[in-house]
Amino acid sequence: MALRLPMPGRARAARPDLAVVAEQHLGTVVRYLTGMVGDPVLAEDLAAATFETAVRTWSRYDPERASPAVWLCQVARSRALDHFRREGRRRARETRYASETPLHDPGPAEPGGLSAPMRAALARLSDAEREAVALRVILGLDTAEAAQVLDISPTACSSLLHRALTKLRREVGDARG
Fold this sequence. Notes:
This protein is mostly helical. It has two domains: 16-97, RNA polymerase sigma factor, region 2, helix turn helix motif (Rna Polymerase Sigma Factor, Chain: A), CATH 1.10.1740; 114-177, Arc Repressor Mutant, subunit A (Orthogonal Bundle). The protein contains seven helices and no strands. The radius of gyration is 19 Å and the shape is globular. The N and C termini lie far apart (61 Å).
């Protein structure tokens, strides 16, 4: 393991207090997760898991690599992706062992405050497009921060957002007549 020495004349960024960071960014993380999963209750559960992970891994947070909000969104994204994988495995098991009469699955609850055409249009976006919209539009992260959370280049993030917004405009515009 190589020892990283600070650059001469450059002070190392101080790691902020986790309690302060958590208080400042709890709403950001919950809004991001709500945009990702579409269910405010599930988003709060995932936010709790996010901050539980943050407490355990705060010593590894490097303030020179990402802002606290971006780092927390990366942790939240990881928790949400873990949830989606678990849900996929659970659904596959249930499907495999289900009786001939399928159970009604109402799906996740819709986030509040959106029109029916907008909810429908968002549901038709890819997961990546929905996530880009959540990061850039709902949270207001800049392109570089959103790209860092998504682990893609800023150019790819801009393209992804542009495609998503074009689809949303087209679909919501078509629904209005």
